[in-house]
Amino acid sequence: MRLPSNRLRPAPATSGPRVAPPNSLARRWALPLLMLLALPAGPLRAAASGDAPLPPYHTPFPLPEPRLLSDGFLCTGDWESHPVFSPGGRTLYFVKSSPSNDFTAIVYSRFVDGGWTIPHMASFSGKYQDTDPFITPDGSKLYYSSNRPPQDYIGAEARDNMDLWVCDRATDTTWSEPRNLGPQVNGAANEWFPTVASDGTLYFGSNRPGGRGGLDLWRSQLVNGAYAPAENLGDSVNTTANESEPLIAPDQSWILFTSSGRHDSRGGTDLYVTYRRGTSWSAPRDLGDVVNSKQDESSPHVSPDGEYFFWMSRRSFTDTPPDHALNYAELLSSLRRTRNGLGDIYQIDLKALGLAR
């Protein structure tokens, strides 16, 4: 948990009114002025009207280039990915992975007293391989992917495939026991990265039979409160390469997704966008150098207010040669912080993606 800064040292004893020393006003304003001068050039964003606090990811200046979501507890040098905010943006769920990515857990951090707290394990996570959280816009449900057995009990062993699950919100940070989404959605293959449109239609990635390649994009429509059999999104989106992690627009007008092995890839996995065209989809477009690198990019997410885009990137200090020979201390510092080749969470203005049709 975060400790208030005034707990780090005792308050000075006083016996009367506190009198400001000479030039204290100048010193008081020096740091804020320096911080303002250090902001990127460009117009400042207008503050939100009314009494509602701005979400903590809000920046007073445009973000046309990627930046780390936050150093400290959210971006640490460990493998962090799959960010998703609760409504209001003051609780963030994300995934922490082992360096080999063979164990993943869903954790959360809250924005309290001006900073993000030390993450806690999500109430349903920590035992099995849990990943790909998605929170509905009203905050009432959390979907995710896991290899937990259909009925969890003490001593139960993980299965060898991933299914999609859903939890109902119980309190601000606790959830009901997970429910498997059932045989119309889940099968003997893997199901990954569930996202839900406004009408309840579920989109996900899977390597089930009937696809076009290794991993394809699928969807299952909600009919009378039950999921219909999943259907492949077809040749306009899916290829013999891998397509996965679909983030659906609430109105299903576009999908952001991850793919590897396509002819226009910049290397590793890239993020793409496709637009709905009646009952089909447009040819996917790579999101370009502003988002993609020669490393892996994945985990697309749009902030609850629709202003910002978040994703995971494995871009690294090794992507460009250092300007001098590193000594041992510099090497250790580079290996044990962000941009070390493990996953980091980045943020950019959504409009920088050029999603206009």
Structure description:
The protein has 357 residues and is mainly β. It is built from 2 helices and 24 strands. The strands form 6 sheets. Strands 2, 3, 4, 5 and 6 form a 5-stranded antiparallel β-sheet that branches. The protein is globular and about 60 Å long. Mean pLDDT is 86; it is low at 1-42.
Order of secondary-structure elements: HEEEEEEEEEEEEEEEEEEEEEEEHE
Discrete helix count: 2
Tell me what portion of residues adopts beta-strand conformation. 25-35%
Give the overall silhouette. globular
Report mean pLDDT, rounded to a whole number. 86
Share in helix:
under 10%
Describe the largest sheet. 5 strands, antiparallel
The count of DSSP E runs of length 2 or more, i.e. the number of strands, is: 24
Structural class by helix and strand composition: mainly beta
How far is it from the N-terminal to the C-terminal residue, by CA?
44 Å
Rounded to an integer in angstroms, the radius of gyration calculated over CA atoms is 23 Å
Low-confidence stretches: 1-42
Key words describing this protein structure:
357 residues; disordered N terminus; 6% helix; mainly beta; five-stranded antiparallel beta sheet; 32% strand; globular
